[in-house]
Amino acid sequence: MKLTMAQAVIRYLNNQYIQRDEKENKFIAGVWGIFGHGNVAGIGEALEQDKNLKHFLPRNEQAMVHSAVAYAKQNKRMQTYACTSSIGPGATNMITAAAGATINRLPVLLLPGDIFSRRNVGPVLQQLEYNRSPDVSVNDCFKPVSVFWDRINRPEQILFSLPEAFRILTDPVATGAVTLSLPQDVQAEAYDYPDHFFDKRIWDVPRNAPSEKTIIAAANIIKNSSRPVIIAGGGVLFSDAEKSLAKVCNHTGIPVVETQAGKGAIPWDHDQCLGAIGVTGTSAANIISRDADLIICIGTRLSDFTTASKTLFQNPDVTFLSINVSPFDAHKHSSVSITGDARECLEKLCDILDAGGFNIADNYKNVIKDQKAKWDQEVDRIFNLNNKPAISQGEVIGILSNAMNKEDTVVCAAGSLPGDMHKLWRTVNGDQYHMEYGYSCMGYEIAGGLGIRMAKNKGDVFVMVGDGSYLMMNSEIVTSIQENQKLIIILINNHGFGSINNLSLSLGSHGFGNQYRKREHQTGAYTGDKLPVDYAMHARSMGINGIKAQTKQEFESALNKAKKHEVSTLIEVLVDLSISVPGYEAWWDVPVAEVSQSNKVVKVRKDYDQQIKQERDY
Fold first, then answer.
1. Which of 425, 411, 464, 442 is nearest to 575 (CA)?
2. Rounded to whole angstroms, how far apart are CA atoms 283 and 237?
């Protein structure tokens, strides 16, 4: 079959399927791409001729990868998109989002255009000339943020690279951003490809189970514990293990705390659900975890926010038991590790524990019940401050959380919102809450919301975004209109980078460089008037509805209108900066200047030196 390399790539993508639990679907749902020199005559021509693989036109290359990754996460890694770009800035725009995909263990296929393989016309427009190797281009920057990288210098090389790329994309242990750099001349070269290369291929995702010996050993560790706690990570959701987790909790009484990626693994009102853990955790989760003698980690990579920079677990006799599909993650914290699918492991553990009649002691149950009740009261307090007429960020979260139904989804990524939402959001299932917090990438929110919307058939998609992130990337509002995908965007206006401003203040500084104010000519500081940005008007200029709200009543009214509208709506909410959601029983390691002319910084450094002593060494 004589095809150009680009035509062969598209034909191959269109015949790749994935299967788990006897459920089969096409793995690549379509191709996002902005065309320029480097892909317009190759991949662009191939997509134009092929009517089976749909093309989507974004406004920013970073944003299109965010959309693809959010789509993959919403589909629990069982479907994703490919993304193509021109050479040069089109390609490097994708690097930030590629890093996010790899950090979050989410599959996305990147097909950046590249410089001429035959070299004789170089340097071409946008080519980086690297005088130590003519084979280097800006696409080499993808190497550290990709789980697989290759440059296709001959058209027949895809016969080997594409199967390897899909093996990795569909592997829950290895998955992330896969990059195939496609030189623009090679894309257009033809080759006689074997017909069977384009046969339908099904990539099976097995539910790997650990050995019986390993499970029995883990069950014995649990039976010998007195204050166990489960950390539910994103692996619980990716494995569809929510029911199995609830079954374990119901049978044993063991409480559950949640990471950002695992939030919604168990309903918020379940008796054993203590909510978020770590730096952005609840008082209930952190107090119980602090004294626990066994930490059962399920599908979590144990980031510093989850472990409070390794200061959270203070029981001197604490043991870590980790269940993870990835051996790399399963062995963290010197854990007793079980490598396998979360659902399979939980089911086998439950059978053994149930047969042995294991259940936590009544006094531990009472402590859990008491801490949960106190936290629920604290959330109710934050949701109902009634500091009229102003509205706080916590109240905005409360109104929206209470207004959501089980088919809706909220998305967020950066700023102070993720921490407050992690603590306060009352999730009833894992599809309701979508947080990109592995990379906490500003600009993900709207693009990610679009990807989620495209993955869902029912419910609304609510995008929670600060004014800082909105100004970084709002371009995909236009794409949402083009694709007729409705979003409800809640823009929290705090006139700057509110999260880092507060962090700066907590470290003894003065919020330097974080407020959206005019520069004072005399002092050179950003202490002048607030910048007069009208976000609602800006949204209307791009073709969606724009509403302003400054009180609880105005926000509730705007939310009701947005839900009834058929097109996207942005609600700009001016929040009271003096009211913030506190932290609860956790610390985050942010190094403070060891010497400073500021007395406040010196004082904070002394506190820091004491706190760092609490960090675990392993």
1. 464
2. 24
CA distances in angstroms from 141 to 12, 63, 95, 101, 148, listed in the order given:
26, 18, 8, 15, 13
DSSP per-residue codes, 278-303: STT--HHHHHHHHH-SEEEEES----
Handedness of CA 260, 266, 271, 272 (dihedral sign): negative
Q: CATH 3.30.930.10: does it fit domain 386-495+531-574? A: no
Contacts of 567 by beta carbon, 8 Å cutoff, 6+ apart: 481, 486, 543, 544, 545
Q: Which residues contact 389 (CB under 8 A, 6 or more apart)?
A: 550, 551
pTM given for the model? 0.96
Burial 581-592 (b: 16+ CB within 10 A, else e): bebbbbbbbeeb
Q: How many CA atoms lie within 13 A of 531 on its CB side?
A: 16
Angle at 280 between CA 455 and CA 298, to 5 degrees: 65
Domain 212-375 indexed as CATH 3.40.640.10: no
CATH number for the domain running over 2-204: 3.40.50.970
pLDDT in tens, 152-209: 999 999 999 999 999 999 999 999 999 999 999 999 999 999 999 999 999 999 999 9
